[in-house]
Task: structure prediction
Amino acid sequence: MKKAKPDEFRPEYCREDLGKGVRGKHLKAYSAGTNLVLLQPEVAAAFPTERAANDALSSLIEIAGHAHLTHRSAGAQRQRVDNPLRAA
Result:
């Protein structure tokens, strides 16, 4: 990698002005478990705030929990039973 000459740096990029770096500064927040989800633009437009999206998803979870799904409505495939009386 080509090193830049000291006179090529902009004056506002002075390392001394940045202060001392802190190792692990964001570790606690990262460990807490932040989830980011990328939404399609039309979905994001329907929910203008984080709270609106969370409220809608919470309602959907609640509705799904109250739904009584049968074995078939849950996506189970019907097993085919060969009928010996049916001509092949």
Q: What stands out?
A: The two ends are 74 Å apart (CA to CA). The chain has a mean pLDDT of 77.
